[in-house]
Amino acid sequence: MKKSLLIALACTYLFSGCVSQKKFKAQLAKYDTLKTNYDKVDLMLSDCASEREKQIARIAVLEEELAYAKKNGSAMLQQLSDLSVISSTQSESIKKSLDNINAKEGYIRNLQTELSRKDSLNMALVLNLKGALQDVNDEDVNIKVEGSAVFISISDKMLFASGSYNITPRAKDVLGKVASVIKAQPDVQFMVEGHTDNKAIRTGAIRDNWDLSVLRSASVVRVLQKQYGIDPSRMIAAGRSEYVSVSSNDTPEGRSMNRRTRIVILPQLDQFFKLMEPK
Question: Which domain range does residue 68 map to?
Answer without folding.
Answer: 56-120
